[in-house]
Amino acid sequence: MPKVRFACLANSNKEGGRCLAGIVLDEKNHPVIEDGHPKWIRPICKTVHGEIPTDLVAGINILDILEVEILNFLNLESHQPENVLFWENSIRVVGLYDKSGLDAFYASHRWIFGNRGKAIVKEEIDQHNHSLMFIKAADFEVYQDTKDFLSR
User: Fold this and answer.
1) Residue 119 main-chain phi, psi, to 5 deg
2) Domain-by-domain residue ranges, the chain?
């Protein structure tokens, strides 16, 4: 089984467990670049939603360098080509990624999914070769609609 090393950029709650994702690294811990962009990986399990059991990844932190053994690269032509099935007992922390190297992870896409709207139409999703992206916001605003918030 091939081993893949990656810098963890997400360890978030997901229905029934956790979602782990990051940038693939080479043997010298440099990001792997494909088609001009950092290569992402999202290890998933054979569970209802692909979630990873929480107990397997509870101690994993952002920027930990992880290594997993891949069972299946799934459908690389899908709208989530980063998904890979992995052997659950293989996941291990092998280092810590130096945060000074994060600039190499930023995506250079003009638009997140090729449009300027809040969503992408179903007919266009298969035209994209990524579902994950690391962005650097130069300027942003936080807006909260209190009317909507209070009605929940």
Assistant:
1) -150, 165
2) 3-150
Rounded to whole angstroms, the Cα distance separating 9 from 13 reads 13
Residues 3, 70 contacting (CB under 8 angstroms): yes
Question: For the segment 106-116, what is each residue's pLDDT rounded down to a tens digit?
Answer: 766 555 555 55
pLDDT digits (tens, 9 = 90+) for 36-67: 788 889 999 988 888 899 999 999 999 999 99
As a dihedral over the C-alpha atoms of residue 23, residue 131, residue 82, residue 94, rounded to 10 degrees, the angle is: 30
Q: Report yes or no: 113 and 130 within 8 Å, Cβ to Cβ.
A: no
C-alpha span between 53 and 59 (Å, rounded): 12
Please report which residue ranges of the chain form alpha helices under DSSP H: 54-57, 146-150
